[in-house]
Amino acid sequence: MFNIVLHQPEIPHNTGAIGRTCLMTNSALHLVHPLGFFLDERSLKRSGLDYWHKISVREYMNFKDFLDKNPQANLYLAESGDGQFYTDVNFSPGDYIMFGSETTGIPKSIMDKYSNRIIKIPMADEERSLNLSVSVGIVLYEALRQNGFTGLM
User: Fold this and answer.
1) Is residue 100 part of a domain?
2) Pairing outcome for strands 28-32 and 3-7
3) Which domain holds residue 139?
């Protein structure tokens, strides 16, 4: 139904939790390399990701590769700081929602290119940001809510 894009995620447990959320919402997970961990069978098993084979996962060498393979992507960039509230966006099935790495976020060059597509979750400004997997859940479930939770029970 929706597409979650992780740009250079660093923490395997966050990616695993996001993968599980994608699995439970019929959403696809897109991983833009480089990753901060390995996706080989041994690493996945060690992380307890025994459901990984059920998730719709697509991998890309870099952001250009992602764009080349998804030229029609209706892309939103979730980032702390500037942007419109995620609740002010009218999400449509098939939209792509991108989240940056845990420590550096989405690169400035990408943010500049899509400056009118930046969305944010309101939060206190004394701290850095919410956990990545929590942020994905918040935004994805708003998109699902707006679309009547189609296909979910």
Assistant:
1) yes
2) parallel
3) 3-146
Say whether 48 sits in a helix, a strand or coil. Answer: coil
With CA atoms as reference, report the closest residue to 80 among 101, 63, 94, 96: 101
Domain count, the chain: 1
φ and ψ at residue 60, rounded to 5 degrees? -135, 145
CB 106 within 8 A of CB 81: no
Q: Chain centroid to CA 109: how far?
A: 18
Separation of alpha carbons 22 and 12, rounded Å: 15
In angstroms, the CA 49 to CA 71 distance is 31
For the chain, the first-to-last Cα distance in angstroms comes to: 14
Residue 152 lies inside a defined structural domain of this protein: no
Does residue 86 lie in a domain region? yes
32-44 tens-digit pLDDT: 999 998 887 676 6
Question: What pTM value is reported for the model?
Answer: 0.94
